[in-house]
């Protein structure tokens, strides 16, 4: 049985120093920015987010991404067809931002499509930058019969392929009318006659552009995608298919840059501007586990707790230096700790025995020795067991450990070398287990030859230790137990 010696690569002190260096390095960096988002952000997996819509689209169009900053558009690869999706942004797009979106996507996509679903005017500048002649009114539709939830028909028969070319009967939630000229195709009206969804196809800078604008983004929210009603999921995928031209290689971009990003730690800080009602609404509209994970990761980062800890330790030592008795007591305690540490690490050298040769006390019969010498006596596995137990007793009395222990192996290695020591201990221990417990390995064809071989090796090991078993009395002792 081959034995391996444990090797310590680094000392405990070196390991602690490396850990301290790593913590200080991490403390110099900023903690991970794990924000939570309110509103219909693709990064929001709460009930009013759109993460489920994005994941559903990604299952059909693998090249689907979400961006948290408009500057990320510079890093997207060129594609034959792109779809840009905006759902109920909370922060209005400026004219410069809208032009930047249009120009960047036109330079990277041969064919470009937009899905704008918004009940406010926050995304109108995007529609204006595309010269679409479409705008969202921003006024909320209210009916004496249906209130803020008007029944609506979305008719895709004029713009969709077979399978998606049908009429969807849905209910909107706080929707806004859409202002449109005759160049656009109306694909959605409420039962009261309000235009709430339009399709527009145009050309801009030698690029073909398609636009679908809907006056309500709530039909794409997670709570709707997770409902038992499949019609909203079917409608969402039909609109995506139309604008992607049914091309599986279509690059779909969800814009998550215009939603309020909230640092969870700021919610609970004393200087936070959040009211209790805001915190309650955030807990309702956000996934609780996402908030808890974000807070936990911020707290365990060294930049959060290490500077205050260092500051506290510094103040503690400053307070100590002002008191003579306290500083003296601390110094004595530290000295005692250091003394104990160095005392434990002190190398203790075991006294070596004098090199005189001693014989293990055994009784011998003359006729037995003569029988072995003449080959009349064949050694058996019981004789090997006797040999092992005698050698094991020698090690227990001299070294203080059993023969098959790591410390015994180390001791023998210091005398005859690691290779010879490992071979000897391996053969002795494995042979003993086979003789006592049985088994297949090691393969021993003759216990007589095996035992005689181990007698010679044992004598060599014992000689190195200052002992002998065979020089004066022979090997017959093993049969007398």
From TrEMBL:
The chain crosses the membrane at residues 312-339. Keywords: Membrane, Transmembrane, Transmembrane helix. This is DUF4350 domain-containing protein.
């Amino acid at each position: 049985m081959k034995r391996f010696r444990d090797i310590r690569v680094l000392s405990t002190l070196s390991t602690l120093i490396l850990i301290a260096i790593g913590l200080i390095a991490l403390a110099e960096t900023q903690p991970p920015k794990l924000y939570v988002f309110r509103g219909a952000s693709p990064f929001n997996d709460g009930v009013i987010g759109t993460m489920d819509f994005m994941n559903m689209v990604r299952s059909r169009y693998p090249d689907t991404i979400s961006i948290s900053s408009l500057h990320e558009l510079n890093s997207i690869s060129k594609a034959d067809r792109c779809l840009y999706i905006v759902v109920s942004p909370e922060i209005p797009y400026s004219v410069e931002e809208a032009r930047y979106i249009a120009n960047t996507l036109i330079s990277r996509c041969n064919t470009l499509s937009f899905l704008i679903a918004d009940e406010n005017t926050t995304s109108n500048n995007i529609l204006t930058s595309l010269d679409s002649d479409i705008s969202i009114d921003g006024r909320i539709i209210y009916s004496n019969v249906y209130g803020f939830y008007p029944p609506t028909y979305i008719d895709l028969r004029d713009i969709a392929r077979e399978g998606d070319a049908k009429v969807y009967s849905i209910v909107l939630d706080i929707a806004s009318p859409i202002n449109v000229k005759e160049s656009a195709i109306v694909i959605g009206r409420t039962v009261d006659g309000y235009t709430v969804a339009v399709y527009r196809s145009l050309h801009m800078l030698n690029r073909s552009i398609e636009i679908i604008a809907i006056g309500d983004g709530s039909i794409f929210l997670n709570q709707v995608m997770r409902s038992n009603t499949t019609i909203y999921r079917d409608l969402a995928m039909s609109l995506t298919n139309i604008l992607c031209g049914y091309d599986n290689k279509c690059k779909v971009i969800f814009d998550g840059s215009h939603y309020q990003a909230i640092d969870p730690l700021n919610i609970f800080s004393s200087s936070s501007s959040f009211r209790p009602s805001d915190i309650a609404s955030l807990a309702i509209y956000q996934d609780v586990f996402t908030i808890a994970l974000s807070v936990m990761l911020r707290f365990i980062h060294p930049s959060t707790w290490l500077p205050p800890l260092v500051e506290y330790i510094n103040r503690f030592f400053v307070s100590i230096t002002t008191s003579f008795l306290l500083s003296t007591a601390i110094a004595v305690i530290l000295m005692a700790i250091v003394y104990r540490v160095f005392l434990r690490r002190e190398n203790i050298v075991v006294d070596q025995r004098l090199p005189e040769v001693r014989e293990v006390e055994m009784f011998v019969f003359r006729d037995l020795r003569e029988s072995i010498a003449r080959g009349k006596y064949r050694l058996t596995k019981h004789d090997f067991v006797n040999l092992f137990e005698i050698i094991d007793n020698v090690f227990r009395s001299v070294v203080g450990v059993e023969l098959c222990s790591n410390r015994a192996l180390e001791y023998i290695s210091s005398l005859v070398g690691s290779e010879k020591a490992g071979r000897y201990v391996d053969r002795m221990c494995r042979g003993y287990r086979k003789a006592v417990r049985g088994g297949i390995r090691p393969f021993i064809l003759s216990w007589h030859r095996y035992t005689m071989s181990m007698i010679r090796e044992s004598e060599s090991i014992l000689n190195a230790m200052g002992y002998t078993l065979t020089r004066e009395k022979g090997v017959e002792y093993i049969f007398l137990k």
